[in-house]
Amino acid sequence: MDRIEQLKEMLEEDPNDPFLYYALGLELAKKKNYQEAMQAFQQTLKLDENYIAAYYQLGILYIEIDIVDVARTYIEKGIEKAAIKKDLKSKAELEELLEGIE
Known about the structure:
This protein has six helices and no strands. It is an all-alpha fold. The chain has one domain: Serine Threonine Protein Phosphatase 5, Tetratricopeptide repeat (Alpha Horseshoe), CATH 1.25.40.
């Protein structure tokens, strides 16, 4: 059983775990399955809107498929959440990503 199948099985048992959706998104992105990866990261944010890494990953994916406006929206929202949480490292990473597309 591959990692994606394992994560999907774990999600059947615990469908409200944002980390599992995040991990699934990472695995799907590695395989360039961008649509499903985006859905997994979006589900992460539905369950936990403060999951800052999901904003970063969504920004990366939208940049990858050249939809920069949507990427910018996710990145800016992530910066806002990171500032509220005083997560300076994540905020700096998101700001750097944003600078790279401007």
